[in-house]
């Protein structure tokens, strides 16, 4: 008898779009609830609102996916990241991968061609 | 915090309402005093005219322009650097069609979707040994304009910011390579191979009766 690790979720396919929506919203709520714990665990210098904004950003990035299979894989990825983050299997570098814009405001794409040219990007 | 709000606002826009690059950077045509203004119109374009085929959709320059311009508003990655090219479009899973949106799922850096990929068949070596290396199709990444190679100041070795230099993928057929590039969201172009022309010859054809010219060139 193998006991699953803490916060593991069984991978399954969504039956239809309503099922997928329910799973996505449950996952999103879990992340929002876990934001203070993430800040305390990894000693982040960011306020909890920033973490919640980032969570919202990551979910919004995939809002218009049209295929159910892709949504299933994305839900799995969300569960995977959730488990790895809250079990302290990640390190600070891995968490800060998501916060590039906040940590380094200078790292961004140029706003138009001329600015990019003046920066030296071909 | 204005940096975060700006990036959220751009993320909450739907794909159709995403801002496109403005056309103000294009210089206007300079009219000199004696020269009459150019009279060419879109009817003179060498592309296929609408009357040729029902399958060809004619797209004006204004329609295609925003699609082919670099998109400066995409969200950056943890791997974006000063050498990253600007993508034209980044896959987000909402594309129509049956193919898997692998660009969204693979977690690959966004730079890869900005770079052009060449799909080609390697040329036959100029020896008489045979052509077994030319049956597959290869996918190769175009070198970066600025970061592909420079001299390391410490030892003079060659440094590079290009993590795809020296990588090539092999495929059995052109369609496989194209569907892979579509799946991963790469910009690609296909370079058709130069096929050798071979005329089958028979020595006996030199002695076949011909009523007109006797000297016929059979090797062309």
UniProtKB/TrEMBL annotation, chain A:
It is found in: Mitochondrion inner membrane. Keywords: Electron transport, Membrane, Mitochondrion, Mitochondrion inner membrane, Respiratory chain, Transport. It is a peripheral membrane protein. InterPro entries: Complex1_LYR_NDUFA6_LYRM6, NADH_Ub_cplx-1_asu_su-6. Coiled coil: none annotated. One of its GO terms (cellular component) is mitochondrial inner membrane. Pfam families: Complex1_LYR_2 (PF13233). One of its GO terms (biological process) is response to oxidative stress. Its main location: mitochondrion. Belongs to the complex I LYR family. PANTHER family: NADH DEHYDROGENASE [UBIQUINONE] 1 ALPHA SUBCOMPLEX SUBUNIT 6, NADH-UBIQUINONE OXIDOREDUCTASE B14 SUBUNIT. This is NADH dehydrogenase, alpha subcomplex, subunit 6. It comes from Glonium stellatum.
From TrEMBL, chain B:
Pfam families: NDUS4. Keywords: Electron transport, Membrane, Mitochondrion, Mitochondrion inner membrane, Respiratory chain, Transit peptide, Transport. Coiled coil: none annotated. Residues 27-52 are annotated as: Disordered. It is a peripheral membrane protein. Accessory subunit of the mitochondrial membrane respiratory chain NADH dehydrogenase (Complex I), that is believed not to be involved in catalysis. Complex I functions in the transfer of electrons from NADH to the respiratory chain. The immediate electron acceptor for the enzyme is believed to be ubiquinone. The keyword rRNA-binding does not apply. Belongs to the complex I NDUFS4 subunit family. PANTHER family: NADH DEHYDROGENASE [UBIQUINONE] IRON-SULFUR PROTEIN 4, MITOCHONDRIAL, NADH-UBIQUINONE OXIDOREDUCTASE. GO terms for biological process: electron transport chain. The keyword Zinc does not apply. GO terms for cellular component: mitochondrial inner membrane. It comes from the Eukaryota. This is NADH dehydrogenase [ubiquinone] iron-sulfur protein 4, mitochondrial. InterPro entries: NADH_UbQ_FeS_4_mit-like (IPR006885), NDUFS4-like_sf (IPR038532). It is found in: Mitochondrion inner membrane.
């Amino acid at each position: 008898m193998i006991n699953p690790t803490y916060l593991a979720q069984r991978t399954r396919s969504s039956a239809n779009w309503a099922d997928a929506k329910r799973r996505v919203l449950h996952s999103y709520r879990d992340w929002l609830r876990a934001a203070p714990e993430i800040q305390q665990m990894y000693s982040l210098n960011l306020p909890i609102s920033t973490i919640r904004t980032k969570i919202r950003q990551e979910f919004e990035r995939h809002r218009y996916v049209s295929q159910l299979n892709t949504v299933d894989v994305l839900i799995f990825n969300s569960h995977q990241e959730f488990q790895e983050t809250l079990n302290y299997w990640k390190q600070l570098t891995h968490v800060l991968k998501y916060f590039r814009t906040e940590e380094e405001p200078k790292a961004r794409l140029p706003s138009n061609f001329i600015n990019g040219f003046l920066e030296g990007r071909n | 915090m204005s940096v975060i709000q700006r990036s959220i606002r751009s993320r909450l826009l739907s794909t159709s309402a995403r801002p496109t690059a403005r056309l103000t950077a294009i210089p206007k045509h300079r009219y000199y005093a004696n020269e009459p203004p150019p009279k060419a119109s879109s009817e003179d374009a060498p592309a296929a005219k609408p009357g040729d085929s029902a399958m060809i959709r004619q797209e004006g320059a204004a329609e295609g322009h925003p699609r082919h311009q670099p998109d400066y508003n995409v969200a950056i990655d943890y791997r974006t650097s000063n050498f990253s090219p600007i993508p034209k479009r980044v896959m987000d899973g909402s594309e129509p069609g049956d193919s898997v949106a692998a660009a969204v799922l693979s977690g690959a850096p966004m730079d890869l979707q900005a770079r052009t990929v060449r799909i080609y068949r390697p040329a036959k070596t100029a020896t008489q040994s045979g052509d077994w290396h030319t049956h597959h199709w290869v996918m190769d990444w175009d070198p970066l304009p600025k970061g592909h190679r420079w001299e390391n100041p410490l030892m003079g070795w060659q440094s590079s910011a290009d993590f795809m230099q020296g990588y090539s993928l092999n495929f059995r057929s052109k369609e496989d390579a194209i569907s892979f590039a579509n799946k991963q969201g790469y910009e690609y172009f296909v370079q058709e191979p130069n096929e050798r022309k071979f005329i089958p010859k028979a020595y006996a054809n030199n002695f076949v009766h011909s009523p007109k010219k006797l000297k016929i060139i059979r090797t062309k």
